Amino acid sequence: MTNVLELTGVSKTFDDIRVLHDVTLAVGPGEILGLIGENGSGKSTLIKILSGYHAADPGAEIRAGGMAFVHQDLALVASMTVLENLRIARFRTGFGWRIRWSTERAGVKRFLDQVGLDVHPDTRVGDLSVTEQALVAVARGLADIDETGNGQRLLVLDEPTAYLPRDGVERLFGVLRDLTAQGASAVFVSHRLDEVRELCDRVAVLRGGELVATVDAADKTERDLLELMLGRSVEDLYPDTASPEGEPWLTVEGLGGGALRELSFTARPGEIIGFAGLPGSGYDEVPYLLTGARRATGGTVQLDDRSVSAATLRPRAAIDLGMALLPADRARAGGAAALTVRENLTLPSLPAFTRFRSVVSRGRERKVAMEQSQRYAVTPRRPESALRFLSGGNQQKVLLAKWMLGEPRVLALHEPTQGVDVGAKREIFAHLSAAAAAGAVVLLSTVEHEDLAHLCGRVHVLRGGRCVRVIEGGELTPGRLAEAVYAS
Amino acid sequence: MKTVEKYAVLVVWALIIGFFSWRSDAFGSTSTVKLILSTQTVILIATLGVMVSLAVQEFDLSIGSVVGFGGCMVAVLDGVHGWAPGPAIIVSVLVCAVFGMLNAALSVLLGIPSIIVTLGTGTLLTGITLGITDSKVVTGISVKTVRFMTDPFLFGIPAPFYLGLLLCLVAWFVLQHTPLGRRMVFIAENREVARLAGLRVTLIRAGALVATATLGGLAGIVLAGTNSAANPQAGSYYLLPTFAAAFLGSTTIVPGRFNAWGAFVAVYFLTTGITGLQYLGYAGWPEQVFYGGSLVAAVTLSHIAGHRRMPSVA
């Protein structure tokens, strides 16, 4: 059987900088190939060459059968129906260019069946769950391949699980396995090494633009893959954290809003506290409600001797209290991508960079931007370049540095390491630990149980908007956390 | 590359000045310079006005109507009701500011896209302008006002030009050197980031719309004073030149951002082109072609250069 995808000698050079060097790889029929690499390893460039967005340097040979892409953001139009999303570019028309709706519906139904989706083609995509939306995106990929392909089917999935709940990931993987059993192939790109190991047959590892290894997934542990990716042995990803003493100074009582019904807890300075749960449990509302980013429906927040009602808390007041929020959605809520690293860094503390309280001193800004870039190991260290030119991990370091400039007393984070490579992840953890050691309260909402277990002194597990369990001490392991989260 | 981008408009400006001076003897004279500098103050002030809103990602399409209204209001108060020039001017500007508050209330507080709000309120204001003037040109503006607007003040150029220059200076300082200016950039680029950083997003957006209407009113008063009469239909002319100049200005001096000196350069660049063509004997069509063409060219160039600064309508 011939391969579904064959790349020979693929290189890519941007402005004299070679970001991909002589990559040769193949995907066979029925195979799922994992593609891993740190940010900046050339992974995205390779995907963009496959999709035709970039052209490879001359001399490369690319042979592909029918190929379709499923991106992290799925590229679906929420306000349109499943059918419209699948067929928008290829409606079959009859007399007077009338769309043949019944033929279209039957065709779409066939692809929905292939991904095990039992929804009506006329359902609005926005009314589906995120998992179902991901499956619709896969179905669209299959439909597109069917239209253009030569019988070979290859799905390229770029971080498709980033926004999926655990059961959704399993469902997607089930569908992918069924499809490959019928001869389709897939390339699976992900930062999540556990998922890569679980799903893929072989794993291709990119580092510094070169394909450093292609290994059988079954032979390697997560740690092996990680070391291949980084090109060195992994020191402990997690810093040592001390358990602090002292009086509680943050007291949250009856906090509610969105999916969160009622949450109360106290924190001592230096504590790192985790919040875990399934989607809809409210664990991911905590950072936003506490910092006034989303409007709480009730509860009080007491910091030191100042007590405020959560319902009236706004970002400005929260910042004045000494709180900082690092939201999960970097592009929409974290930083302004088109503005420079310097401008992003100084935004919340701009008055500190003024002369006569009215003129911004760019010199002082530059100096501090340089210092922060150095302290947070931001590469490239160019404060005048736009934030969007940095990799995800470096952007996140800049945004963390931005809030740390204000020396917050409470640092609330939601998925701080989403889409961040392992090196940056380790650095971010080290900074969180250092912030705690300096006396800040760190609040961490995430689905990464491993991270919670290693970093936090205590994790609140939420269900139905309430805290159902507090796990701490020797009990705090990823396994126990997962049990508590998934137990129903 | 960045330097090229920064000064491209200046270079093209110099080239067209050279070209017109070569083709027309009358063009290359101090009287042309004086003419160009004296007659474009209304557009300059109104351009600074729309620029302030654009800088926070708001589209104020009512600018033309406000210019027309401001001029007629002062003409009616001064010329018809016999108010003293000072109070007539102050009250006219204040009424325009109140109109800006209406725009702000609808688009910022209620969240209706400003482009739609101002399309409606602008039309409404034009109707009011026709009402208060009985759809006729209003004359009788006091001589004192007219002389202030038209008599040479410095280097043979009347005072309003220097007022425009002063406003440019203020806009440059605020936009580029104060925390407020930086905050406006963030509000334009990413409103959620701005909000989470504790910025008073609502207040700043509303303030920008009020500033636009206020500057529009001021431009209208200069228009009426210069012409010693106010035409209720005059306002509609000012929509295109101001947007063209504001967008063209955002591609130069500080490329990618709406900036005062960029707007200044753009206003006089466009006028130079139009005036030059008129000297060569082309009349009528150059204005529309120049303003329309440069608006499209400016937005296109800016898009190609990767500055995604187009206000989103939704």
From TrEMBL, chain A:
SMART domains: AAA (SM00382). CDD domains: ABC_Carb_Monos_I, ABC_Carb_Monos_II. Keywords: ATP-binding, Cell membrane, Membrane, Nucleotide-binding, Repeat, Sugar transport, Translocase, Transport. This is Monosaccharide ABC transporter ATP-binding protein, CUT2 family. The keyword Repeat applies. Pfam families: ABC_tran. One of its GO terms (molecular function) is ATP binding. Coiled coil: none annotated. InterPro entries: AAA+_ATPase, ABC_carbohydrate_import_ATPase, ABC_transporter-like_ATP-bd, ABC_transporter-like_CS, P-loop_NTPase. The keyword Nucleotide-binding applies. PROSITE patterns: ABC_TRANSPORTER_1 (PS00211), ABC_TRANSPORTER_2 (PS50893). It comes from Asanoa ishikariensis. Residues 5-233, 232-487 form the ABC transporter domain.
From TrEMBL, chain B:
The keyword Cell membrane applies. One of its GO terms (cellular component) is plasma membrane. PANTHER family: ABC TRANSPORTER PERMEASE PROTEIN YPHD-RELATED, ABC TRANSPORTER PERMEASE PROTEIN YPHD-RELATED-RELATED. This is Monosaccharide ABC transporter membrane protein, CUT2 family. GO terms for molecular function: transmembrane transporter activity. It is a multi-pass membrane protein. It comes from the Bacteria. Pfam families: BPD_transp_2. The chain crosses the membrane at residues 7-23, 35-56, 63-83, 89-110, 115-133, 153-175, 203-224, 236-254, 261-282, 288-306. InterPro entries: ABC_transp_permease. It is found in: Cell membrane. Keywords: Cell inner membrane, Cell membrane, Membrane, Transmembrane, Transmembrane helix, Transport.
